[in-house]
Amino acid sequence: MKIYVDAYLSKNLGDDLFINILTKRYPQHKFYAISKGEKGYNTKNFKVYSNTYIFKILKKFQWEKYLANHYDTVVTIGGSMFMERGDTNRDFSMGKNKRYVLGINFGPYKTQEYYNNIYNMLSDVEDVCFRDKYSYNLFKELPNARQAADIVFSMDTSNIKITNRKRAIISIISPKDKIDEKYEEKYEEKMLELITFLIKKEYEICLMSFCKNENDEEEIEKIYSQIPENQKKKVEKYYYNGNIEEALNTIADSQLVVGGRFHANIIGLCLGKSILPVLYSDKTLHVLEDMQINTPIIDIRKLENFNIESIKDEDLTRHYNIEKQKEDAQRHFEKLDIQLIN
Questions:
Q1: Which structural domains are found in the chain, ordered by start?
Q2: Does pTM top 0.85 for this prediction?
């Protein structure tokens, strides 16, 4: 069977894991997608047509649904796939074929009009499975709506080398890309405070980029340039470039994950690490609340309210049982399994 994949293809570790999990689950089928120029995605059963011009035309004129009609099934897989960005009345439909919308959260949104548009679109799909209860509750009247733990909880970690090295992975984000440039200076100051705080507690530091195209690397360089020279020997940098295995092993070689990226927190939990979430939106908060995880949270929108010194030693060494989430995450695929396996 030929499946068209509607996903975020931009060398983003979290979204790349979605694709990796999806295509490995159904090796007997062929998956296809189009990207705006990113290369290096092709595998035995996943073909990406990389053409910036065609991608822009398809998106601008909302013609992607006509392309999708040439495939047997459409799978929309991702996290924040439906955020209101001045596209209130955009046609989000994806052709006439069976469509499965997996792993998403909804919002942030501003208008009832946008919500109604997405509600009507989702009412026509075969299956929609949200990753958080907040989003699900907004659409729970739909008979095809479900909720399960984030898809990344279902990843296979058996071949990853997990250590207990006293190292903190700090997932850095670019405030100007993810929230607002006005938070940038205070964010950098707080990250520098945190680096100093952790080095004093004898942690090694790794500043990690999940997505170059969203300027993680640029922000890391800005922060690194401000680190005192006597601390730099304790700080290294890791830039994700599409090598999922290498990135996961980098995170696994640590004790603590400071999660600026949503999936830095999820991956950290999957690998048995302590987490210290850094929020730029409520999507991470919603999932932490669903899991009843109680840990200090650094909210970029409220940095003046957070004192780094309030972090206790037990906050840096707290672990969580996520066996329930690992099993629950498989449920995202239960309807698609009927289509592609049974």
A1: 2-147 (3.40.50), 167-323 (3.40.50.2000)
A2: yes
